[in-house]
Specification:
4-stranded antiparallel β-sheet, 5-stranded mixed β-sheet, Immunoglobulin-like, 2 domains, about 55% helix, globular
């Protein structure tokens, strides 16, 4: 039988869509980096590719590791996840100077028709410059940190996997914006002198310290969900909150103070902290100049095929096919994603020497198949009993025309390997009783959990992911048509005498 520690380490929740996007980003970057190296560019050293890949792996680890599985039960795990998303992954990704390698790594048609012109578009430059201005970046990250750690928004993210993903995206994107002036990835230009990044980072450290102090020194549990869920790893809800605040304090301070010290030393030593920026500006004045030529792309192709490949039409067709394949794959991964974040505590009870907690979908429980997860602990020691047998059965109330259903819970279909899961079919709307039978060694107890199922909504769920895909395809098509639209010629009429 695996130990509790082994079960925790096996509790991975690999997100298909995010994993696909991260792997695709890594492949595009590596292709662009390889083209830059092959062209002899001095601005693509191996260490940049290494830091970029480590940053992507850190992002994936934060979203897929046991930290994500346990963030609804342990605040410390949630805080560690936030630190990786905000303090570790963004600066590592930016140290990889991803702009030019990502553009060069795209198919030649996409790079030349869309990515390059967009990055050279004056509106995009102004918006990007405004967002990455140090004052705006500092305010954005501070606002995101404080807003999402208010009890109302934090509880919203815990109850809904969709809002939880929005929270993570907000943390990651605002952190990319915040770290941009600090790292100043090639070939962007600094808006403030280098020494100004020292007070910039110290002000951010003050924001982080204020928020972490609220968590650390509060005499009450700020987030009600952690006060009612079963306690794991021997920490009370308040102790867990203090530990999370301490982690935020220490990790955040290191993330801000260490770069500030390095920048201060560089400035005081009178050496340019970013000599490669000057070199980079000599190479590319615009992103169009950084794009590979079509002859570079097809260089590895045998000579007898090159004559057939050097056509704009083939570039467009190959990009369209690739775009459709990647787009539909991403949409499919989004629709197949399942997340235990949508489960909430429905029942907690004790009987004999057992303490049992039952989790089910949050909100109104719709009639039909529903997934239930059960945590069994020893009542005295609160140790998780991994070898307990759990049986679930649902019985309709008197007068409800429905049949009973029974299922044996197991760890196989559960992301959290401390919980046993099973699916019960509450076939009709109305009152039900779920019977939870727990057996461990020679002991057996029974828990009765009343539930009310509501009538499920009739209709087709709006396919928002497909809508986004087709909208993006339409935008790209209209952009291409506009760029290559032939201007109408005006013929002058003969002047009448």
């Amino acid at each position: 039988m695996p130990s509790v520690a082994q079960a925790v380490l096996r509790s991975w929740a690999i997100p298909p869509a995010a994993t696909f996007a991260i792997v695709l980003s890594a492949l595009v970057y590596l292709r662009g980096w390889w083209l830059l190296r092959r062209a002899g560019s001095p601005d693509a050293p191996p260490w940049r590719a290494v830091t970029f890949l480590i940053g992507l792996f850190t992002l994936w680890f934060a979203l897929a590791s046991p930290m994500d599985v346990f963030n609804g039960l342990v605040l410390t795990a949630h805080m560690l996840q936030h630190m990786l998303l905000m303090m570790v992954a963004p600066p590592l990704i930016l140290l990889g100077a991803p702009l030019v390698p990502m553009v060069r790594g795209l198919p030649i048609f996409a790079a030349r028709e869309f990515a390059g012109p967009f990055l050279n578009w004056s509106v995009a430059k102004r918006v990007g410059g405004a967002l990455t201005h140090p004052v705006v970046a500092l305010l954005l990250m501070g606002l995101a940190m404080f807003a999402w750690h208010t009890p109302a928004l934090y509880e919203l993210a815990l109850r809904s996997s969709t809002w939880h993903q929005v929270e993570h995206a907000c943390f990651f994107l605002t952190s990319i914006i915040f770290w941009w002036p600090v790292v100043q990835p090639w070939p962007s230009r600094a808006q403030w002198p280098r020494w100004a990044m020292v007070p910039y980072l110290l002000i951010a450290d003050l924001e982080n310290t204020a928020l972490s102090a609220i968590l650390t020194f509060s005499d009450r549990v700020l987030y009600p969900s952690y006060a009612v869920v079963p306690r794991l790893f021997g920490l009370s809800a308040l102790e867990d909150q203090v530990a999370a605040g301490a982690i935020m304090w220490v990790v955040g301070s290191l993330a801000f103070v260490v770069p500030a010290v390095i920048i201060a030393v560089q400035c005081l030593s009178r050496k340019s902290a970013r000599p490669e920026i000057a070199v980079a500006r000599k190479h590319y004045r615009s992103f169009d100049e950084a794009l590979p030529t079509f002859s570079e792309v097809i260089a590895p192709v045998p000579r007898f095929l090159r004559a057939r490949l050097t056509t704009r039409r083939l570039e467009a067709v190959s990009f369209a096919l690739l775009f459709i394949a990647v787009g539909f794959s991403f949409v499919r991964f989004l629709s197949s994603s399942s997340d235990d974040d949508d489960q909430a505590l429905r029942f907690a009870g004790t009987s004999g020497s057992f303490a049992v907690a039952v989790f089910a979908p949050a909100g109104d429980l719709a009639a039909g198949p529903s997934r239930f997860s059960v945590l069994v602990q020893d009542l005295g020691s609160r140790e998780v009993l991994l070898d307990a047998a759990v049986e679930l059965s649902a019985h309709p109330a008197a007068g409800l025309q429905a049949s009973s259903t029974i299922a044996q819970a197991s760890y196989e279909d559960s992301e959290n390997k401390l919980l046993q899961s099973a699916e019960l079919n509450l076939s009709t709307a109305g009152d039900w009783t779920v019977d939870v039978i727990v057996r461990h060694n020679s002991r057996a107890v029974e828990f009765l959990m009343p539930l009310h199922a509501v009538k499920g909504e009739v209709g087709i769920e709006f396919p928002w992911s497909y809508a986004v895909f087709f909208t993006l395809a339409a935008v790209l098509l209209l952009t291409y048509i506009r760029r290559h639209r032939t201007p109408k010629t005006c013929t002058s009429l003969p002047r009448l005498a």
